[in-house]
Amino acid sequence: MKVLEIKNLAKSFEGMEVLNDISLSVEDGEIISVIGPSGSGKTTLLRCACGLETPDSGEINFDGTFGMVFQQFNLFPHWSVLKNIMDAPIHVQKRDSKEVEKQARELLNKMGLSDRADAYPYQLSGGQQQRVAIARALCLNPKILFFDEPTSALDPELTQEVLKVIKSLKDLNIAMVIVTHEMAFARDVSDRIIFMAGGIIVDEGTPDKVMNSDNERTKAFLGKLAGENI
Amino acid sequence: MAFGDILMQLAAGFTVTLKIFFITVVLSLPLGLLVALGRMSKNRILSGIVSIYISIMRGTPLMLQLICVYFGPYYLFRVSLGTSYRMLAIYIAFAVNYAAYFGEIFRSGIQSMPKGQYEAAHILGYSRSQTFMRIILPQVIKRILPSVSNEVITLVKDTSFAFTLSVMEMFTMAKALAASQTSMMPLFVAGVFYYIFNFIVAKAFDIFEAKLNYYRF
Question: Any idea what DSSP says for residue A152?
Fold first, then answer.
């Protein structure tokens, strides 16, 4: 079953075409990594999908709720970790606070942060903040979770700690669309990799297929990275 | 006149000062928030009108504004509101003047909020009013507290402008006493009153700031 279907999405900023006729569907529980050079439209695709940007044309259909994890975490600094996670389920979804707290504490446990429930965001490392942001998104029980370069603001050590947590979400059976520059991670975790360049999907398929693609553009991009990331 | 009598008279004037102060604060802070929202409105006409209002309030003397509010109804519409209108005129003029300053302070605070806070709130499903009341405003208050405290301290001293309309607040009283007693002492005592009150106001803001120190941005 599809949890997200995007059809013929187009978006330009001040005459610059950023997305050009993108179509993409995401199956229940599917994990997709979106890779590609900066300015290829990856982030804009996510931002259009979740309504932070209005596309010029095209169709976006969701089944169920969605969540988003930002590059800059965007936790609410005036609330404790627990409140950051619990507030939206209680005040947006109008759920019972006892039940929400139970779920929030379980999620914190899963994130390895059960002892930080009463801390404030400024007291946490970037990696810890990002894990709280993931818990916050999960507590709304989304069918699909978007990650917009979730580790780009983190040093290599913290990056690994966050990637490990994202990998551990596989068994939750939530669909995930992850914009990332971490190629090794994308290869390990994804069911499907999408390679974007110049506002179009250039290449897509299983990690094996994309990593060993014959496509010249894909090869050029991965070749440039080979020396560094992989 | 004995020192005790002077003190009693000044204290009576001081209650009027306090009344002007508290009523102005209570009216102008919420009004200031509305001014900020109007100023930032996407509606060009609304934001234009609010900009002109702010510009006039900040660009003309408060004393003149007091006179306009008090005598305006008569000169414009030939309506006589009587002397009972005097205190009301004071409250209106002060509230409307201070709302302009507070409005600009609120606006700077709201505009300094990172876009990511709005985006995260949007994705989490908060409505616009929930986002503002639960997430944006509490953080804005922490950001603008030092500027607000400055403005409020200025207000304590500005209450003395009420003498323009011959309202018997403390400064008017002190001037009258100084004239009748041919002594500077009443004015000096009034200064001490202002100073002590402002000292308390500043302390109250310090306590409030310390209370909001439980988090950082």
Answer: T
For residue A230, what pLDDT is reported? 47
CA angle B98, B101, B102 (to 5 degrees): 85
Amino acid type, A103: Q
The residue in chain B having the minimum alpha-carbon distance to the alpha carbon of residue A89 is B124
Average pLDDT over residues A15-43: 92
Q: Can you give the residue ranges of every domain in chain B? A: 3-214
pLDDT beyond 50 at A164: yes
What amino acid occupies position A36? G
Place of tokens 């202002």: B194
Residue B72 has pLDDT above 60, yes or no: yes
Query: What CATH number labels B3-214?
Result: 1.10.3720.10
Decide if B120 touches A, using CB distance below 8 A: yes
**Residues 6+ positions from A154 with CB-CB distance below 8 Å:** A126, A127, A130, A162
Structure-block tokens of residue A81:
């970790």
> Cβ contact (<8 Å) for B134 and A68?
no
d(CA B143, CA B158): 24
Nearest to A88 by CA among A114, A105, A67, A64: A67
Q: Residue A156 CB: number of other CB atoms within 10 A?
A: 7
pLDDT given for residue A165 in this prediction:
92
What DSSP line would sit under A70-104, residue for residue?
-TT----TTS-HHHHHHHHHHHTS---HHHHHHHH
Q: Is A70 on the interface with B (CB under 8 A)?
A: yes
> What is the spatial distance between Cα B37 and Cα B55, in angstroms, rounded to a whole number?
16
Contact A217, A57 (CB under 8 A): no
What pTM does this model have?
A: 0.89
Q: Which domains does chain A have, with CATH numbers?
A: 13-64+143-230 (3.40.50.300), 77-141 (no CATH)
| Secondary-structure percent of chain A, ordered helix, strand, coil, rounded to 5 | 40, 25, 35
* B124–A140 CB contact, under 8 Å: yes
Nearest to A22 by CA among A36, A35, A37, A41: A41
Residue B166, pLDDT > 90, answer no
- Structure tokens that stand for A196 in this block: 């974007």
